[in-house]
Amino acid sequence: MATDNEILKNVEAFAAEAHGKQMRKYADEQYIHHPIRVMETVRTLTQDVTMLAAALLHDVLEDTPVGPRELGNFLSTVMDKPRAERTLDLVEELTDVYVKADYPTMNRRTRRTKEAGRLSDASPDAQTIKYADVIDNSVDISHQETDFALVYLRECKQLLQEINKGNPQLYERAVRTVDECLREFWNKSNVKAL
Fold first, then answer.
1. How many domains does the chain have?
2. Is residue 191 pLDDT above 80, yes or no?
3. Cβ(39)–Cβ(55) under 8 Å?
4. What is the DSSP letter of 2?
5. Mean pLDDT (whole number) for 66-75
6. What is the CATH number of the domain that holds 65?
7. How far apart are CA 1 and CA 6, in angstroms?
8. What is the pLDDT of residues 95-114, one digit of tens each?
9. Do 104 and 63 lie in a common domain?
């Protein structure tokens, strides 16, 4: 049986291959660095390999051609069935449902509000992973001086009001990070206005 570290190396390799040459929109780096940072943040709280694997895979179903069946088949090759199923469940909980392609008549605000409502029913472990995702994305996006940075940070603030069942320490860190990023954004905007 593989060790947890071996499992995570295999999961990271799978995620890296799935994301391929994707680049981060708001950071000049390959996409895989984001889920690795999310996993490392989660690792500060737990050594639960299913949560760590889900953190590495949290964007695979949403942002790559990999589907649930392929992901489940892969997971069953690197971990036992209960852990593979739990990891897949977490990834599915973290995968956006209200995407533009499936809901073209909904505007972004409506889709994000519905997504926040959906995530409010997610498991505490999925919400904990989402906090780590929010922290990493907020820091990256806040360094951009775009209107989208403000939109995104406000969405995160709204989301965090809805999802509060995860790890309390990471929740507080996510709230603090979003607030600090918003303050930095406004400070930069005010300096430019002068």
1. 2
2. no
3. yes
4. -
5. 98
6. 1.10.3210.10
7. 10
8. 999 999 999 999 999 999 99
9. no
Residue 57 structural domain: 1-95
- Whether 82 and 133 share a structural domain: no
Residue 79 has pLDDT above 70, yes or no: yes
Considering the entire predicted model, what is its pTM? Answer: 0.94
Are 62 and 127 in a shared domain?
no
pLDDT value of position 57: 98
* Sequence-ordered list of residues with C-beta below 8 angstroms from that of 160, at least 6 positions apart, any chain: 131, 134, 171, 174, 175, 178
Specify whether the CB–CB gap between 41 and 170 falls below 8 A. Answer: yes
Angle in degrees, 0-180, between the axes of helices 124-142 and 33-43, rounded to the nearest 10? 130
Same domain, 139 and 180: yes
For residue 33, give both structure tokens. Answer: 């660095």
Query: CA–CA separation, 79 vs 140, rounded Å?
Result: 32
Closest by CA to 35, choosing from 56, 7, 66, 52, is 56
Q: Which of 95, 126, 157 is the last residue of a domain?
A: 95
State residue 194's pLDDT score: 39
In this structure, the answer to whether residues 104 and 194 fall within a common structural domain is yes
State percent of the chain over pLDDT 70: 95
> What residues does 23 pair with on adjacent strands?
30
List helix spans (H) across the chain: 4-19, 33-43, 49-57, 60-63, 68-78, 81-94, 108-120, 124-142, 147-162, 168-193
